[in-house]
Amino acid sequence: MAAVPRLEVKRLECVRGDRLLFRDLDFELDGGELLHVQGANGCGKTSLLRILAGLSQPESGEIHWQGRPLRRQRPAFLRQTIYLGHHPGIKGELTPLENLRWIARLHNVRRGFDLAGILAQAGLERHLETPARALSAGQRQRITLARLLLQEAILWILDEPFTSLDCTGIDWVHRLLDRHLERGGLVVLTSHQPVRTEAPVRPLRLAG
To answer: Which of 99, 159, 160 is nearest to 131 (CA)?
Structure first.
């Protein structure tokens, strides 16, 4: 990555309905760093991630990317970002291969990508042609996480990426995180379990 990426959040406030989830939220994240957002259910973790991903608007405050307000460069920012929500964003009637082909048509992908090879890394080499609805929850989660190998992005925003995974799957995700951070990428994630990486992990606890 040519330039060291930087994400800055300044005095962010989030209100959902008539409830204040958080206010005056400030943090900075540089390339090679991971922000672990923690807190009880309903404290605003997913709302924060959706704001960072450009899917929701804050009540007030600003997000800066590479020193410039996000609102002035949203299309360019979105091309450099992957957001994986809490629920697998895949189509049940499609196979893993078909799901990744569909995703590849919609997003910025790595050069020379090999869909079968990516799914093999995800542990799905025996299920390339199986409809996703026939797979287990953990296998569907692996299809979703395979996007991290397919898409070209600097910032990963991941909502509970370890959901439904067994120990082997959790170890695989940690290897993906280590590789991305080693290359200078940024990660913002929520997780109810510890995050084990060789790179710096910065905790952010929301009080709710």
So the answer is: 99
Distance CA 73, CA 204 (A): 26
CATH superfamily of domain region 6-205: P-loop containing nucleotide triphosphate hydrolases (3.40.50.300)
Burial of 15 (0-12, 13-18, 19+ CB in 10 A): middle
Residue (of 5, 189, 162) closest to 79 by Cα position = 5
pLDDT exceeds cutoff 70 at 127: yes
Residue with tokens 């997000």: 63
Which stretches of the chain are assigned E, i.e. beta strand? 6-16, 19-30, 34-38, 60-65, 68-69, 81-84, 155-159, 186-190, 201-205
Torsion of CA 81, 64, 162, 179, to 10 degrees: 60
Non-local (6+) Cβ contacts of 13 within 8 A are 20, 22, 23, 24, 25, 58, 59, 60, 61
pLDDT at position 200, please?
86
Q: What is the mean pLDDT of the chain?
A: 94
